[in-house]
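worker-03 picked up job from queue 'complexes'. Input manifest follows; two sequence lines, order preserved.
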Amino acid sequence: MELNIGADFSLDPAGRYYADGPASGEQFRELVLKPLLEKLGKSEKLLITLDDGVESYGSSFISEGFGGIVKYGYMSSEELLSRLEFIYSDEDYEFFEGRIREIVSEAKFGSKEYLSSKADR
Amino acid sequence: MMSENHEVVTALNEIRDVLANQSSLEGALLVAILGAFAGACSAYFFSVLASRKQRSADGARLLIGLVEGLEETAVAYWLSDNEPATNTTVRLQEFQIKSHLKLTVKYVRLLKLTKVDKDVISHLDLFCSRVFRVATGGDFESGDRKASVRIAGQVSKLCIEAKAVLIEVALF
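worker-03 finished. Artifact:
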């Protein structure tokens, strides 16, 4: 299964919570990444294109979008990392792949209960 | 018969002398060529080494400028709240921080090609990773963001450490 962040989500992914803008990490996680992960077959991987129009990422977006999958107990960091593969034609995006892997590895499984920020912000 | 033998001996001696002279001439020529070749090789290797050092120094100078730009923007960003009145400035700062970071990552990758010291590269790689996490983490790009002297201080400290490493590359 494939996900092109620029084409399928936003060319300007930014912010952490819904209230931070139309392409936040929370929105990416809840409406795009989590549903795709749930649809994956047993040994299937999700191929994520990081560049292709997306200029850059912030740590707050990555932390909420990818790290949140582990933090809210949807999937362990080991399983998430084994299910993700990153694609980019621009070598500089290797840096963002590295940060995503780092942030996911450090996230503590189920350390926080998810309450949508739509309600409390 | 005696006279013929004498003539042969004389001719052979002359040939030997000529050959001996010729061989010393060729030897000298060979030594001269080898010397010139060695000189050209050492000049070439020296120029390659010097140009690599020059490229590293030039790259380090460019990186210092980028790190300074990143520090200036990120510190200003984290020293003020996100107020609706300053929203345009804040959005601009967010773009600039992300652009500076991306350019810094690119220049560090290019600096690796100049064969700069491995310790310098690992320090710069770590700097990119840390400053990215600090400067664009927390409430970065959030409408509710409050000023954080702690984050501004951390960004500044990381940038100063990176600049110290880069100054060494630029000067020595």
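worker-03 released lock.
Chain B is about 85% helix and 0% strand.
The radius of gyration of chain B is 33 Å.
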